[in-house]
Amino acid sequence: MDFKSGVIYQAYIKSFNDTDGNGIGDLKGITEKIPYLEKLGVEMVWINPFYPSPQNDNGYDIADYYGIDPMFGTMDDFDELIEVAEQHGIGIMMDLVINHTSTEHEWFQKALAGDEKYQDYYILREAPEGQKYPTNWVSKFGGPAWEPFGDTGKYYLSLFDPTQADLNWRNPEVRKEAADIVNFWMNKGVKGFRLDVINLIGKDEEFVNSTGDLDQEKSLYTDNPIVHDYLKELNHRSFGKYPEFVTVGEMSSTSIESCIGYTKPENDELDMAFNFHHLKVDYPNGEKWTKAPFDFLELKKIMNDWQIGLGENGGWNALFWNNHDQPRAISRFGDDKNYREKTTTSQAHILHFLHGTPFVYQGEEIGMTDPYFDEMDQYQDVESHNAYDSLIEEGKSHEEAIEIIKAKSRDNSRTPMQWNDEKHAGFTEGTPWIEVADNYKVINVENELENGEIFNYYQKLIQLRKDMEIIQIGAYEPMFLEHEQVWAYRRKHDDQELITFSNFYGDPITLDISNEVEDGDWDYLLGNYGEKAFHKNLELAPYEAVSFIRTTE
Ligand code: TEU
To answer: What is the pTM of this model?
Structure first.
């Protein structure tokens, strides 16, 4: 796949399509829907982890990198998926979770059993005199970042769940293991890898306490310059050998400078990077577990900074509104009650005309919303349950805590894919591992393909990127950055100019664009309210998005 002209779909396998009635999506379920994904126009599917795992963190706690967890199918099912996808011009992208393993992985079990070779695969430290843990760091899922290592008196580092132990990448054996894993799956026909929290693999030799400020603490183990060396080494040992192979790094709490380094082609590291800053604009003072409106100007500013930062310095952005760790963007930043279709298509429009590779998260292409679960027993995510417990400990009432979980939980995007209006939305004949959103009778693929406007709009956006170099590689320039309601920008390439506008809210607005846009033969290119003539006083309906193009002298 040429990642500069193609679009990648994300399938959260556990919730995509269940073919054996165990209530959990599976590999055969993805194979069955490959024609649907081809119809959408995507050229690659990123599948979240399906390796053997105790599923404490939904597969991001891997116990065996060379297998398929039976709940998702068999290696034969995997081989069939690769084959069928290839026949439909779609590449399979897997998830490489190599910052940590499950504590049930044989490496960790051998380490616990005293095998020094494998003890050095992990980060084991003693607590200094007068201190409970080696450092005062906190886990990203809450609680201390260190866990007792058996009865050795030492602790192992686990930045996520206690059953996820961080690997010691300073150990060349560990780095070789990573390359072997990638080469194994590449030889099985995999065409891409998403690398999980890969900018956390470069821990210092020395582990020191933080000041207690979370950002300062994260800087102690995030984007260490040695990560570039590790990625270059992995690249040369594995995917760097295949120019067509696509890699995207998930960069937690990262910087533009670091991501330019990770994605600049001449650095031989990765093709592109996910950053999450634009999805923290409803985290007042960086606090995720709060119910707060999003800051639109901050959202535009961040996206603008990353467009310019990477675009003008040889880097490459992975563009996304949704994934399996975030609430659905139409429920978070739009109006999924009164303007669900227009919110979805305008958000997609503003993202797909940007510089970078767009990702479409399952359900986005039919306008799926958050489920608005009211009870904690409807939530399955370890992070959400830990957060609820902490909110209650902090003195919040159950009602207050639930409202926050409802707004921010990762389960908001993990409910089953809604295929039709039958039981469990056609996801499973069994009992789904997590409830289906109760609006599935209206919001489902069958209904969308027959009567909807969203799926078709995504098809158009994806096709335009394939056809138009200006969308693929055109230079980006902001417009109306300080405007409180409209998001606008320009792309330029050779003798072409493309301007895009989106009313990000539900009130109609007339925008005088005469200061930002020269007169000229602007042709309508695409709009979610249909054909529209260019006008210096541009009228934008609620959640309207439109683009015009012209050929300059
Ligand atoms: O997510 C990394 C990550 O930073 C998330 O923890 C994110 O900050 C958080 O979920 C937002 O609420 C990756 C995977 O995408 C996630 O599913 C895993 O839980 C995590 O790594 C550990 O592997």
So the answer is: 0.98
